[in-house]
Amino acid sequence: MADLASRITKPDEAAGAAPQVEDPTEGANSVGIVENAYDVEVKLADLQNDAESPLFSVQSFEELGLPKAINDGLLAMNFKKPSKIQERALPLMISDPPTNMIAQSQSGTGKTAAFVLTCLARVDLSKPQQPQALLLAPSRELARQIQGVIQTIGQFCENLIVQAAIPGEVSRETGVRASIVVGTPGTVMDLIRRRQFDVSQLKLLVIDEADNMLDQQGLGEQCVRVKGLLPKTIQILLFSATFPDNVHRFAQKFAPNANEIKLRHTELTVKGISQMYMDCPDESKKYDVLCKLYGLMTIGSSVIFVRTRESANEIQRRMEADGHKVSALHGAFEGQNRDALLDDFRSGRSKVLITTNVLARGIDVSSVSMVINYDIPMKGPGAGVPDMETYLHRIGRTGRFGRVGVSISFVYDRRSYEALSEIANHYGIDLVQLSPDDWDLTEKKVQDVIKSSRARPDYAPNALGN
């Protein structure tokens, strides 16, 4: 357990230290996309890697030559200048002839807007019911969210129709009738095979959360089958916050001769989030510790991540029996119920949400100030290997777009302790220890972060090295 101990600050060492914060708008555009001092690495495709193919970069959206309706949508959203990823990626993605792209960028850097703008730039709106762009996501929640972003940025585009290809949303009588389609791979594949989705004129395929979507242990096979049903000339854009080596190699085959854009590995941890851990006496005491944290969870909104659906249901039942107001959301719920639960959480009608990894990826709820890893994310046979990527995606649900955030991971035995240690060492995280035996100090530490109105990109309260 020495590895984790070397990366944490004990509660008594932290006593009396005050957090330092700074203005979150510094280095950010007007909608709060964090512009940390990271380097954007660009690797041009072999066919373009010559002196006649310079690497483009833009300083304004106007330089891209987008239609006025799209620029008006950007202004309505208060997007005044591209983020660093957008500066480098957009000229490559919208240039002709179309070129594939593999893009790795952390949460809150504007990657969704980047591929949405590419979709809007590619479609011919004189054919509003002819599918021309397909976007794939791992869950109905993320597909719905992306659909909303397209509709918002494209609000001034006449005849724009965006349709969700998720379970229960596409009529068997009419099939898909939209220029842009956002869906999950299983439903999309079924629609194509039933001849309810004409893919003959598709120009663009976007895969969000590509590390999960192309993982052969997950949705990879479905995505390969969908791609096999599409035109061979289609442009492919792959986006994710993380790309493990094995998935990256597969991505290069899936999107051949692609340009690549990424952040440096050491800068991939989510900025502006104070990452803490609670050393619980044993597994049975985790629930008691969770309930003690309830008052802190409701300062903003909070997400509690657990390993199984059964755990989510049981914790919800126990917390409600103890008088706490919580909701649970996971894959066992019917689609419309899932939509309603997420809408309640977005609106603030529900402030504490217990979920499995269904919400770990891509979901943006701006009010989330705390994420709790009730179970450390694990993968592999017997769930014996720490899941580095899922940890990063989970904690990325808070601290969105320069806001402050806290993540608290529960450990209770040697296995969970060592798993968190491996994650901390992998990302170079300075973890702050919270003690279940000193709640006054624990509450002060968490409140100091959550109640701060401003976030510092490298803020980790009282951690070693500060």
TrEMBL record:
Motif (Q motif): 59-87
Gene3D superfamilies: P-loop containing nucleotide triphosphate hydrolases
Keywords: ATP-binding, Helicase, Hydrolase, mRNA transport, Nuclear pore complex, Nucleotide-binding, Nucleus, Protein transport, RNA-binding, Translocation, Transport
One Pfam family recorded for the sequence: DEAD
Domain Helicase ATP-binding: 92-261
Any single Gene Ontology cellular-component annotation: nuclear pore
Ranges where the Helicase C-terminal domain occurs: 272-440
Entry-linked InterPro entries: DEAD/DEAH_box_helicase_dom, Helicase_ATP-bd, Helicase_C-like, P-loop_NTPase, RNA-helicase_DEAD-box_CS, RNA_helicase_DEAD_Q_motif
Subcellular location: Nucleus membrane; Nucleus, Nuclear pore complex
EC code(s) of this entry: 3.6.4.13
Family: Belongs to the DEAD box helicase family. DDX19/DBP5 subfamily.
PANTHER family registered for this protein in UniProt: ATP-DEPENDENT RNA HELICASE DBP3
Oligomeric form and interacting partners: Associates with the nuclear pore complex.
Listed name of the protein: RNA helicase
Gene source species: Apiosordaria backusii
Lineage summary: Eukaryota, Fungi, Dikarya, Ascomycota, Pezizomycotina
